[in-house]
Specification:
With 450 residues, the protein is α+β, with helices and mostly antiparallel strands. The protein contains 16 helices and 22 strands. It folds into 3 domains: 102 residues, Rossmann fold, CATH 3.40.50.20; 70 residues, ATP-grasp fold, A domain (Dna Ligase, domain 1); 240 residues, D-amino Acid Aminotransferase, Chain A, domain 1, CATH 3.30.470.20. It is 35% helix and 26% strand. The protein binds adenosine-5'-diphosphate (2 copies) and magnesium ion (MG).
Amino acid sequence: MFKRLFVANRGEVAARIVRACRELQIEVVCAASTADLKANFQYLQQADQVVCIGGSAPSASYLQLEQIVQAAKQTNCSALHPGWGFLAENSLFAALCEQHGISFIGPDAATMDMMALKVPARAAAMAAGLPVVPGSEGLLDSPTDAIRVANEVGYPVVLKADAGGGGRGIRRCDNDGEVSKAFADAAREAESAFGNAALYLEKYILGGRHIEFQVLGDGRGKAIHLGERECSIQRRHQKLLEEAPSPMLNSEQRANYGEMSARATAHWNYSGAGTIEYLLDEDGSLYFLEMNTRLQVEHPVSESITGIDLMQQQIIIAAGGSLPCTQDEVQLNGHAIELRVNAEDTDDDFRPTPGELTKFKINGNSIRFDTHLQAGDSVSPFYDSLLGKVIAHANTREQCIDMLVAAIDDADVEGVPTTLGLQRNILLNDDFKNARCDTLWLESFLGGNK
Ligand code: ADP
Ligand code: ADP
Ligand code: MG
């Protein structure tokens, strides 16, 4: 096992990594920007060492590949955890770590490359026997090319960024006119978000549900799946509430789709934790969307129902260890729902709301609260607005809903507006209670149509 690990991230995920290292008795060194150093969050106090890696803006600190690897080396760390966001899916960063003799917690750079862009990832998925959404075979040259492919595939379609992530560069189009209008727009958004304007196209799956399978591979051709999560409650293609298992799959579908996902993971000799994202259409067919070669924000719902600590397993596998169990030994118990609590004003187009959290307490029976913040801490304007995640685990979905509503009602959160009020309304909505929400439901609910 590693003796000392470097945390190349901040906030909630950094706190989660520190906790796993404590449990595995690994010393931990945390990176911090100047703003975070000043904030002196609890996880930074718990670390064995903290290294300032640069200025407050992500581009000056958490995105500085060289600086981070040097800091890890200088503090004698033999492993590095990238968390999610920032450099977590940057294969150059993974390769740089390995060049300097530091184990990158994640799959190798070649596997990350295979999944980094969507068009090659679709090809890798097909080669591993996964069904993909019907769409363009390669990149689109022009709006004319896009219109030609759209007519072959059939409307509605969706233009997507090859380098896409975080829901950016995605445009639904219902006819030729919309394709020619949206093409430049989507390319521009992709260029500014990812420095890569390349687009491709998929059939738009109507009434689709976002279903993703959690997989673990040992890098030597063995892999298991830990069931699925449903993340259809999205705003601008960003998840706001996630649950496991999905109310949409029966146990036969779960076993089949799960086996298919584990088989693909083994086929790729995948190492560590990964997520294969799919869309489930109204007929119950599943289509590959992308694979995220990292731990997911919503991983706690899978941890809750399987009893397997995914953050620990990621580290154990990177250290050369084996999978925690065989597929037959994986047991799914009960139901879990997670709320992503963001500092955002839901009445003002989800504007981020940095500021001081004067009160910050959320608890309840069987409620897990993953956060890096406590009362008195400030939410910085420099970073993601995620304050933390509230997770309920119980025998049934209904119990989870009741527990979360009670936790929100008892919560003591003051200082900045949060998404909790909206999440309470979602939990109490009949469509949600009856599991009738597709990926467009939340937008329509926000628009007053539900
Ligand atoms: P997931 O399926 O895990 O939610 P996302 O594509 O939403 O995947 O991105 C992962 C998460 O990483 C985001 O929700 C956000 O919290 C964080 N993230 C993404 N990009 C950045 C970034 N540039 N800086 C900081 N955090 C980021
Ligand atoms: P990202 O890398 O930005 O996360 P994804 O391919 O995972 O991109 O898609 C994000 C979300 O966009 C999905 O969860 C879904 O809501 C929507 N989406 C993507 N592709 C399609 C499609 N072909 N049909 C319908 N919705 C889609
Ligand atoms: Mg995605």
